[in-house]
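WARN retry 2 of 3 for item q-0093 after timeout on previous attempt; input resubmitted unchanged.
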Amino acid sequence: MRGRPAIWWIRRDLRLFDNPALIAALQRGGPVVPVFVRDPALLRSRHHRRSVRRQAFLDGGLRALDADLRARGARLIVRDGAPDMVLPALVTEVGADIVIAEGDVSPYARRRDAAVRSVAPLELVGAPMVHHPASVLKPDGAPYSVFTPFSRAWHARVLPERHLLLATPVALPRVPGDLMSAAIPDAVSLPAFPAGEAEALRRLRRFAESPEAAIHRYGADRDRVDRDGTSTLSPYFRFGMVSPRAAVVAACEADPEAAGRTGPAVWLSELVWREFYLTTLFHRPRVLQEASNASWREIVWRDAPQDLRAWQDGRTGYPIVDAAMRQLIETGWMHNRARMIVASFLTKDLLIDWRLGESWFMEHLIDGDPAANNGGWQWTAGVGTDAAPYFRIFNPVLQAKKFDPDGAYVKRWLPVLARVPLRLVHEPWRLGPLEQQAAGCRIGRDYPAPIVDHRGIRERTLAAYRQARASKA
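OK item q-0093 returned
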């Protein structure tokens, strides 16, 4: 059987460096057919809901991967349709004896792979993470529901080292002839996030692999929405343009002990959170439909479409919330601290169902990932498997003063506040009439008044949560 073509089915691993599925295909000894299947079912799913920017980022990644493949004697084949229809046809077309792909953890991905396996010789290699969800379990074989013991178990397993990362192939043997391939749409400019593996590796090196790298300040800077203190690698992780193993190696090399609260250790912990959410989705797929914690499945959320629309549009009257939502709409990305602030505001201040926020994020985020997005929303809403306490309600003004102390972030995304004095930039409703006139910011006309009084909502929110818990007692 050696020497026959192997199909490398690319899904969330748009890279050549440290790609176990690609190396497994090459080790078969025959030609390799790299194929990406554009699956229309993903566009119909609420949790894979199409984001124009995310689709543009994916298309850019496909173009970059195709260029990298062509430089090595191969090329990317793009086909449209259901994978369980497309792949068997391609197997016959090229005479392949195997389809090799990286494993995935979402409910849809697992159903899709089962369907393909029933009609084609599919082999799954690894997962989009360092430790497969089935390998990090409690001693009794049950999955973890709390992050801290999960993290300890995760760290107890063997971590990758640089010499174990899989080298980028120098050349790829290809099937003779000219296989049909669908066109990849023309580039849409995403200046903040150029797509492709080369950019992902450049960002990783810049963030983590020099003595002056931002990773060493990450513990102090990561929550500052006004600073460039994060890796901005999340879109690249989303589509596997950078290997999670390579990221872990970079974190561990920056801090060989990977302990305490040093910047590299804190960033490594964030990578483990990503794996925790992927593992949670693998073992508890129902989290995409309902609160992981059954105590909170009966919360009576408000039906408040006008408030929801104000939140979506960045018109709540709270500058830090509105700036973050404008950043999302305009760029497709949002700082992680800002994500927590706006999620708390929607679920706790407005008492609107977290699933509506989760869905809105998936419609707009370049890095929108079902596991991480769901996990983050459930954490902030206090309804997840390991979540913030339900009584934690972020104060948007205090959060803004702490993490945007000079007002640079809100003024960047809300230029109407550019002339508001710093002492009131995070609570402009306190401006007097003359101050509003001087700042060119009339509350209720140039910038909205707060749609809710944060100081007065706490008891309403806590009562709703307590009532839901009592109904489960």
